[in-house]
Target: Crossover junction endodeoxyribonuclease RuvC
Amino acid sequence: MRVLGVDPGLTRCGVGVVDGTAGRPLAMVGVGVVRTPADAEIGRRLVLIEQGLEAWLDEYRPEVVAVERVFSQHNVRTVMGTAQASAVAILCAARRGLPVHLHTPSEVKAAVTGSGRADKAQVGAMVTRLLRLDAPPKPADAADALALAICHIWRGTAANRLQQAVAAHKSARTQEPVT
Amino acid sequence: MRVLGVDPGLTRCGVGVVDGTAGRPLAMVGVGVVRTPADAEIGRRLVLIEQGLEAWLDEYRPEVVAVERVFSQHNVRTVMGTAQASAVAILCAARRGLPVHLHTPSEVKAAVTGSGRADKAQVGAMVTRLLRLDAPPKPADAADALALAICHIWRGTAANRLQQAVAAHKSARTQEPVT
Model:
């Protein structure tokens, strides 16, 4: 499974592509950041994010896109920008018919570090280890995007296994002879 | 000036097209709502909003798009959806090179009723009167979209006049003989 992780933001939108399935070593395929100038108008910034993400989708052809779920508990202004950038990411993926999955920051941290309260340094360190990189990807938005992709591969596969197990169980039950 | 007003929302995205300039009677050109099913995935909903707004832009060819500015003081879940829908509206307009202007709900209410605290019924009544309609447009999101367009025509023109006056003043000053 190839996953594009997107850590949405207007100024820096982190993107990371990871290949993998649960239980096997993961492989980083690409990582980077789509940037837009802070002094540009909001419309221009959203167009630049769309163009940047389209280029990533064209080049890496992911099967799934994982986007960080935005909460509004923090700074209002920042959250609006994050929500708008995430909308563009979700739109770009859905327009291509790609499945989009949202994961909360806690889910992502818990997936890669074991703790939903891990700090950025810990997430960066685990991403570096899990993908066998020489150094943590910079900026943190890029590392977070890779963590999102890893989170999705592990959680997605676990969810799939559960669904398969349930389906197998149901199938077995319906195949029981009705005597 | 032809303005497309957009009252963003995931379930109902109000759209209204108004022709006019300040000081002259306004004319409604079109009004409606882009709807998406509440049980659809977020990606699907954003794609439907994009397609709906593109159809309005294609049909009515506005010169300017006015979108309600989203604040996060209300229900968190609703605000996120509104921010995402507004991002799609801003993106659709900016991609065509159309100027996008954001107006707060208070600005819109104050523009059409004289009070920033007017209720929906009052806004609907004034939109009906200003556009010489037989009845208030339904649902309220459609009336709000028309109010946004009217607000933009009046404020935009006022802002233009102020800019022109300032420019004329500056120009007159620089043209004064330096004696």
User: Anything to note?
Assistant: Residues 2-174 of chain B form a domain with the Nucleotidyltransferase; domain 5 fold (CATH 3.30.420.10).
